[in-house]
Amino acid sequence: MKENQTKDNYDDTSPSGGEHKMLLAFLTLMAAIL
Asked: Hey, CA dihedral for 6, 4, 13, 29, is it positive or negative?
C-alpha cells in the first residue's frame, strides 16, 4: 500500500515521464520478487 501511495505522489510531482517509467518498472520488479 505504501509503495503505491509514494508512486502516486511521485507521478504528480515528477516532470520527467521517462524517469517515472523507469521507477515504475523498478517498483514492479521489486514487487514481483517480494
From this structure: positive
Specify the pTM: 0.42
Q: What gap in Å lies between CA 23 and CA 20, rounded to an integer? A: 5
Domain that holds residue 22: 2-33
Distance CA 18, CA 14 (A): 10
Question: Per the structure, how many domains does the chain have?
Answer: 1
Measured in whole angstroms, the distance separating CA 14 from the mean position of its chain's CA atoms is 11
The tens digit of pLDDT for each residue in 5-33 reads: 555 555 555 556 677 888 999 999 999 99
